[in-house]
Amino acid sequence: MAIREIRKEGDPILRKECRPVKEMTERISTLIEDMFETMYEAEGVGLAGPQVGILRKIFVIDVGIEEPEPYVFINPEILELEGEQTGQEGCLSVPGYSGEVTRAEHVRVRAFDANMEEFELEADGLFARAIQHENDHLYGTLYIDKVNGELIDLSTLESGEDEEE
After folding, report:
1. Which residue of 37, 63, 97, 121 is 20 to 30 Å from 69, comparing CA positions?
2. Which residues are catalytic?
């Protein structure tokens, strides 16, 4: 396994649409392992293929306590979105910033797992938000495209600076 470079906003690969994964290969299996390792090292809850320079429809998520197991989503298809939640989001590809984004509260998704076995699941709350956020990456969309208002520069919050002097 290896830590991969996380592509940052401004890298054109983040704005491209991904291609489906046709079959599980040793390269895809290694990619999945590397994506989890990279995500954990960066202290993220999700990571999509384009964020590590791979234009394939694949992402990994581990939201911890809310959903106690990590998930691999290959060729995901969102089947249903319901309700609404608004909250802060960040992204490993846009480090140091956060913004308020409105997404569906509930999502139903179909995808393939790391064994290329199809599954369907329903998610709410943070898990639903993470699925929608990572799925957007597969179509060249970043959360900053959906922010309500302005992005927050987290370095100004950490340093204790006020916005108005």
Report:
1. 97
2. 134
